[in-house]
Design goal:
- This protein is α/β, with parallel strands linked by helices.
- The chain has two domains: about 190 residues, 3-Layer(aba) Sandwich (D-Maltodextrin-Binding Protein, domain 2), CATH 3.40.190.150; about 100 residues, 3-Layer(aba) Sandwich (D-Maltodextrin-Binding Protein, domain 2), CATH 3.40.190.
- About 45% of the residues lie in helices and about 20% in strands.
- The protein is built from eleven helices and ten strands.
- It is globular, with a radius of gyration of 22 Å.
Length: about 325
């Protein structure tokens, strides 16, 4: 019994020392540059949002935050690098909604998505919109649904990629509206817009902020947006809940991940500082120019969001028999 007591005391003492060390590390963190990986090429929304937040974070911490683009494999290349990185808070990664798709869609991942990463928090999000060609004759979501039911598979619906978040949006709408249409994938929002405006497709699903200028100019029409309330940039466009589809809710979120064993004190310090910066006028104004609004969450909230989206997307992938691109 005395031996067990000594072992328990020694274990508790070691834990106290380690906890004290983590707290001290968090107090001094960061003491050198932070590498902020982006799983996509330079110049796009993911890159630009990361640079805005990274620059503000570097100024706040007094240490450079170096953005490193690591595209490939729908985010897998960067995720593999993050999973191998030291868990010390000096390597972090941007993750978007696709991260919650990969664990189901790509069963041969070299990392365990449940343990390889520590969610830090979300930064911004963008709601999805159902878009239409003005000449297609659809003035509402109801009219699209009625036309699709009257002509199953004859309406062409555009989306980005064939297995990403755009596909999830398309499949979820088809399921909830009980319709069928022909899916036409494109490589990006620019190609999607060209096809929609040119009449190559009848409708499209994409994040709303990629097409605000074209919607406002009348070149394409937005019939509804996801989310709890109408977008400030599109006050005349109803939400899906308003048009009778209250459960249709899909968004593109941008968040930050750290390696899985990063000390909670460092994760929390990062999360709190990012949240503080997202509340500042300067960062909000810079994000607003990209038509993004802050979407702030704690590590625990972000972790739950990933779990919820992973489960939801897994069902869609299974039901629609979606395969990797």
């Amino acid at each position: 019994m005395k031996l067990l007591t000594r072992v328990a005391f020694a274990t508790a003492a070691c834990f106290a020392v380690l906890s004290s060390g983590f707290a001290q590390n968090a107090d001094n963190y960061p003491e050198r540059p932070i590498r902020f990986m982006v799983p996509y090429p330079p110049g796009g929304p993911t890159d630009l949002v990361t640079r805005i937040v990274g620059e503000a974070l570097g100024e706040s911490f007094g240490q450079p935050v170096v953005v490193e683009n690591r595209p490939g494999g729908s985010g897998v290349v960067a995720a593999e690098a993050l999973a191998r990185a030291p868990a010390d808070g000096y390597t972090i990664m941007l993750a978007i909604s696709t991260h919650a798709i990969n664990s189901t869609l790509i069963p041969s991942l070299s990392y365990d998505p449940n343990t390889a990463f520590a969610p830090v928090g979300t930064m911004v999000s963008s709601e999805f919109a159902l878009l239409a060609n003005p000449d297609a004759g659809y003035g509402s979501v109801k009219e699209v649904i009625e036309a699709a039911k009257a002509n199953p598979g004859k309406i062409n619906a555009g989306l980005i990629g064939s297995a990403g978040i755009g596909r999830m949006a398309v499949e979820l709408f088809a399921d909830q509206a009980d319709v069928r249409y022909t899916q036409v994938p494109y490589k990006g929002s620019a190609a999607l817009f060209t096809a929609l405006a040119g009449g190559e497709i009848d409708i499209a699903f994409d994040i709303a902020n990629s097409h605000l200028a074209q919607i406002k100019s009348g070149r394409i029409k937005a019939l509804a947006v996801t989310g709890d309330q109408r977008l400030d940039a599109l006050p005349d466009v109803p939400t899906f809940a308003e048009v009778g589809l209250p459960d249709y809710d899909v968004r593109m979120w941008f968040g930050i991940l750290a390696p899985g064993k990063t000390p909670p004190e460092i994760v929390n310090k990062l999360s709190q500082e990012v949240a503080r910066l997202l509340h500042t006028d300067e960062v909000r104004q810079r994000l607003a120019k990209l038509e993004f609004a802050p979407f702030i969450s704690t590590p625990e909230e972000f972790s739950q969001l990933i779990k919820d989206d992973t489960a939801r997307f897994a069902k869609i992938i299974k039901d629609a028999d979606i395969k990797p691109q």
